[in-house]
Structure formats: C-alpha cells, structure tokens
Design brief:
This protein has 362 residues and is mostly beta strands. It is 5% helix and 43% strand. It is built from four helices and 26 strands. The strands form six sheets. A nine-stranded antiparallel beta sheet has the order 6-7-8-9-23-19-18-12-16, with no helix packed on it. The protein has a six-stranded antiparallel beta sheet with strand order 5-11-21-20-17-13. It starts with 5 loop residues before the first strand and ends in a 6-residue tail after the last strand.
Length: 362
C-alpha cells in the first residue's frame, strides 16, 4: 500500500494539513502578521515506526472525527477504538486551495461517509462537515480535538452553559502500574472550579494543567436550549485564543481529556503531557458503542449519548474551530455570540473581540 499523503489548505491566515489516514487535521498554523500560533497537539511518537498498534494512536495529532466514539465494541466489520473514520483511509473527491472533499474508504454502520474541510478567505477558522449517507442504527460520535499547552503556562478554559457535568463511572487509570487518575469517579459537579479529588478536597479545572502526572476525563452536557454550543481556551502568555463551535442538535456534550503524563505504558510512557482534549461528542463518555447505545446514566438524565442513522436520509455533523491573537488585557472568554458574519467574544471585564466567521455556517 502506498505511503499516506497529506492534503494542504491555505487561505493566507490558516494553513492546515489533512492526513489521509484517519482524516486527521494537523499541523495547523494560524498567521497574523509577524505572529504565528500552532496550538494543536502532535504526539511525540508519530515519527516512531510501530509505536502504536492502531493508526489513530500511531498518528495522534490535531483533530479527527470518531464514529463510533470510544470503544468500537459492536460493529463486526471494524473493531478499532474510535472507528473507521479515525483509523481508515480517506480518498480525494475534490481538492482546492481552500476546500477539500473526501470519502471514507469503507462504510460505517452501512453509511457512506463524506468529509468536507474548508477555509474562508481571510478568516482564522477551520470549518468541517461530516455527512453520513444512509446507514442504520445508533452511533456515538464526535470530534477529537487536542491542544498542547505551552511549557510553563496554564490555559484558561470556558464553555457555553451546561445542564450536567461529571466524571465517568470508573477512573481513567486504576492500575498503579499503568497510570494514575486523581479525581473522584464517579461524581457530579456544578462548576469546573470545584471538582472533587479522590483523596478529598477539590481542584480548579478551569485552568489546565493543574494536576500533575494524571489522566482524567469529564463531560459537560450542554444546555439543550442552546442553538449552538462553544468551547474556548486562552493562553495568556503565548497570546492566543482558541475557540470551537458546534450546532447543539447533533453533538450534545463536551468531553474533556486531561492527559498530563499519567499513563506509563507505551506509546504514552509518561511523556504524553500538557495535552488537553476538547472533544465535542454525543457519547457516554469514552466507553464506546455498547455503553452509549444501551441504558446509561446520561441517557436516564435525558442527555443523548448516540445519534441515529437512517436509510435513505443524510445525517450531518458540523464543527468549526479557530484561533485569534489575544487582545491586551483580555481575560478568559465569558460569552460567545453569533452575528451576521462575525463572532462576538467577550470576557467578564467587558472587553470584546470580533472574529470574522462564515454567515453560511452551518
């Protein structure tokens, strides 16, 4: 089989690569005059041949789409974690300087899957659309976006209003020979600023990293009344602001993966640190297909954990993320609103930032 290729898109502000295997986006470079930011993560082992046993993990970088999200323990044709969309090959249908259209080589639950990645002239935003044509059954799915926190810095995190927040039923890493998790599992919390620790007390997770040498997962179920939901991270010292948006009708929650040198086994080997996964999903945490489509705690609370595919119809998942320079004195994002052709971001001190954004999204 030929070596996997990388397609490139560039609109003068954003330059990205899209990897043939898993459709992974990375690197992603955002340029503003003399300033340049590359906040997306790339695992330290991506150039080590045979470091991981599945393509998604071997090439771990940036952002990729997962269907099913998490453990792939139901589909007989594909058993790798995060599914064929994250591990299989994508083939080119159309490729221009600012738009790429791909088709997955293989089907997911009987559905043909298309991936569109596009840029808009002059905008610091990456737009994505995944379309499932046909198919049948329920699937957990979502975007797996990862940021790398600059050395010696903390990101300031904020999110649109959520109706429920908590941790999975079990610690991410429970065997002390393999890794470590420090939060209390399971738990519910009302604010990221006060999340319970297993040893007692609380920790403020609105700043990351906070816990050293740990792997944690938590989920924020977005307020169902929202038309769209957003996530934001501010790097005060490096001077960038990252944001992401999703329509709230399909992807319903934000899963946070706090990966800070808490896994000791290969390929992580204690070197996967200061990585923040901001993963927009409809899923029962990371527990996979069976757990997300059967009875579970979130489903009982009215939080959807899977998306239904239907023969003869299309299921569309839109997502967008971007980066802008941080204005002087701007604190963490307190609100994000849509205008005609802009986003309006504001902090809690009354400072505002307007970002050009596609009026035709989604």
């Amino acid at each position: 089989m030929s070596e996997p290729k990388t397609w490139h898109l560039d609109n003068g502000v954003v330059a990205i690569g899209v990897f043939e295997i898993g459709g992974q986006i990375g690197p992603a470079r955002f340029r503003f005059g003399e300033e340049q930011f590359e906040p997306l993560h790339e695992a330290p082992w991506v150039n080590e041949a045979g470091a991981a046993d599945i393509p998604m993990l071997q090439h771990l970088r940036g952002d990729f789409f997962c269907a099913p999200f998490g453990a792939n323990d139901l589909l007989v044709e594909e058993g790798r974690d995060h599914g064929l969309t994250a591990n299989g090959r994508w083939r080119e249908l159309e490729h221009g300087s600012e738009r790429l259209l791909l088709e997955l080589a293989g089907r997911v639950a009987g559905a043909k899957v298309l991936k569109e990645v596009r840029l808009e002239p002059g905008q610091p935003v990456v737009y994505q659309r995944h379309t499932f044509e046909g198919g049948a059954g329920e699937l957990p799915m979502g975007h797996h976006t990862m940021l790398r926190v600059p050395p010696g810095e903390q990101l300031l995190l904020s999110f649109s209003p959520f109706s429920w927040a908590g941790t999975p039923p079990h610690p991410v890493e429970s065997d002390p020979e393999r890794g470590r998790s420090l939060l209390e599992y399971p738990q519910e919390f009302e604010s990221l600023e006060r999340v319970a620790l297993a040893a007692g007390g609380t920790v403020d997770l609105s700043r990351y990293p906070t816990l050293e040498g740990s792997e944690e997962i938590l989920l924020l179920a977005s307020d169902p009344r929202l038309e769209f939901a957003w996530s934001a991270a501010v790097a005060p010292e490096s001077g960038w602001l990252w944001f992401a948006l999703r329509p709230n009708r399909v992807l319903r929650s934000t899963l946070l993966w706090l990966s800070n040198a808490g896994r000791y086994y290969p390929p992580f080997s204690g070197r996967h640190s200061r990585v923040l996964g901001v993963e927009e999903v409809t899923s029962f945490f990371h527990h996979g297909h069976v757990a997300s489509t059967g009875p579970n705690r979130l489903e009982r609370l009215g939080v959807p954990t899977s998306v239904r595919l239907s023969a003869g119809s299309a299921t569309i998942i839109d997502y967008a993320f971007g980066v802008v320079p941080l204005p002087p004195g701007f604190a963490k994002v307190a609100s994000l609103e849509r205008e005609d052709a802009h986003l309006l971001l504001a902090d809690g001190l009354g400072r505002e930032l307007r970002v050009p954004f596609s009026a035709r999204w989604p």
